[in-house]
Amino acid sequence: MQLNWGFMEKYLPMYIDAAILTVKIAFGGILFSLITGFICAIVRYYKIPILNGIAIVYIELSRNTPLLVQLFFLYFGLPKIGVVLSAEACAIIGVTFLGGSYMAESIRSGFESIDKVQLESAASLDLGPWLTMKEVVFPQAIAVSVPGICANVIFLIKETSVVSGIALADLMYVTKDLIGLYYETDEALLMLVIFYLIILLPISIIASVLERRLRYAGFGD
Amino acid sequence: MENKVQLKINNLRKRFGTEVVLDGINLTVNKGEVVVVLGPSGCGKSTLLRCMNGLEAISEGEILLDGEKITAGSKEITKLRQKIGMVFQSYDLFPHKNILDNVTLAPIKVQKIPRKEAEERAEKLLRRVGLWKKRKAFPRELSGGQKQRAAIVRALCMNPEVMLFDEVTAALDPQMVREVLNVMLELAEGGMTMVIVTHEMQFARAVADKIIFLEKGKITEEAEPEEFFTNPKTETAKEFLQSFVYEKHKIQ
After folding, report:
1. For residue B92, which residues of chain A lie inside 8 Å, CB to CB?
2. Residues within 8 A of A (CB atoms), B 39-78 only
3. Residue A219 to residues A115, A139, B164, Cα–Cα distance (Å)
4. What is the pLDDT of residue B169?
5. What is the pLDDT, as a whole number, of residue A221?
């Protein structure tokens, strides 16, 4: 197989721009989904009335609809009721909407793993809900949640490839575009794979180091 | 010993759904007194202790601590927690904090005393139970007995007026039971007001000023230890005490 190196060199800057966009959407989406997830996890863990119901509906809705459908709703649906968002904003909101539920369940499973006697001894020391969460529940829960959170991060970065569906020039979009224009399929796909690996491999490595560090973090029987 | 009333429980009732777990408990604990609660499992011993610490809301009745009234359903129940320390059966230290941080967490964050002062307080107590050298260790690095001693210190570090012990040696290996009971004996001698739930009869006899026998949520006997152990009045108490005696030829 003969690769067209000249082609790859010529369109490298396009791929770099696309990678930056992918990272931007992923970063924004992941950051906001962590915030959303944390809030939902708290709401569900403490079973806060009304909000708990809303959180359950949100989580089921978000997990059981494809991201592309969510993006279409934001990008093509909302303008019909007068809400016009940029494609980039739609992408970040979409990733947040999807990721928030996954993060919520990962974080909540960490909260739920804390033994009841831990909460009771915190209560017997009069720690109160806020201090109990901050000093007792959260630091222990995060060690349990991190593997799930890391898996979600990688999953969400890969999911961003769907945003090409609303005309955002991310890696997937550029690749499809170049294939359509020049038929340099092998080269375009190779570069796509390489760029995804450049983004994802370091994250994957950091994640496994983090998991190991937390597992041997000097606590937990 | 002063005869000042420290803790008084009037007509305390606790229901879980329709099940009545505590049925009209009246109990007076004087300052410096050690009360041991005995009874068959499921009689409500632990629930009584948990009510006294505000971990369980009381359904009826009132608890008076230093004359301050805490009634069923009031939010003031949490006031009990700072004045009443509690140690549980399962090791309940915070596994992600070392021993010193476990002990000083609540004094610093809840009572808002300066860290230096809290650590001085902790040092005195940890030295007393022989754990000062282990202050930087994490709970998982300690033996069961050491963990329970640390848990006692953690409760003591809040300067409580009353200490509650809920079967604190039940999960320990026999040789570790002693070291924990010794700490409790020492506390009792030091004049701490204590309410203890235990299955260590010898210890109960030695440490108690008063024995309470609980049966189906009611106090059926209240007596001095010598009297209770040599001459129990109710049949259930007799049977209960008999269950700790092993005689070979009697087993059929």
Report:
1. 117-118, 120-121
2. 53-55, 78
3. 15, 11, 27
4. 87
5. 40
Task: Supply the pTM of this predicted model.
Answer: 0.82
pLDDT of residue A202: 93
List Cβ<8 Å contacts ≥24 apart for B52-57: B52/B7, B52/B9, B52/B80, B52/B84, B52/B162, B52/B164, B52/B195, B53/A124, B53/B80, B53/B81, B53/B84, B53/B86, B53/B164, B54/A123, B54/B78, B54/B79, B54/B80, B54/B81, B54/B84, B55/A120, B55/A123, B55/A124, B55/B86, B56/B14
Please compute the mean of the pLDDT values over residues A154-182 and round it to a whole number: 90
Q: What residues of chain B score a pLDDT lower than 50? A: 1
Nearest CA in chain B to A118: B92
Q: Nearest by CB to A126, from B93, B106, B154: name it.
A: B106
The answer to whether A131 faces chain B, any CB pair under 8 Å, is yes
Mean pLDDT of A123-128: 88
- In DSSP terms, which residues pair with B166 in a beta bridge? B197
Kind of pairing, strands B34-38 and B193-197? parallel
Tell me if B95 and A131 make a contact (CB, 8 A cut-off): no
Give the residues across from A9 on adjacent strands: none
What is the overall mean pLDDT for chain A? 90
Give me the residue from A118, A135, A220 closest to B109, CB to CB.
A135
Q: What is the pLDDT averaged over residues A22-30?
A: 94
Which residues, listed in sequence order, are joined to residue A194 by a DSSP beta bridge?
Answer: none
Amino acid B202 reads Q
The rounded distance, in Å, linking the Cα atoms of B18 and B29 is 29
pLDDT digits (tens, 9 = 90+) for B22-37: 888 999 999 999 999 9
Q: In the predicted model, what is the mean pLDDT of residues A150-169?
A: 90
CATH superfamily of A21-216: MetI-like (1.10.3720.10)
Cβ-based neighbour number of residue A105 at 10 Å: 19
User: Token pair of B24, please?
Assistant: 């009209």
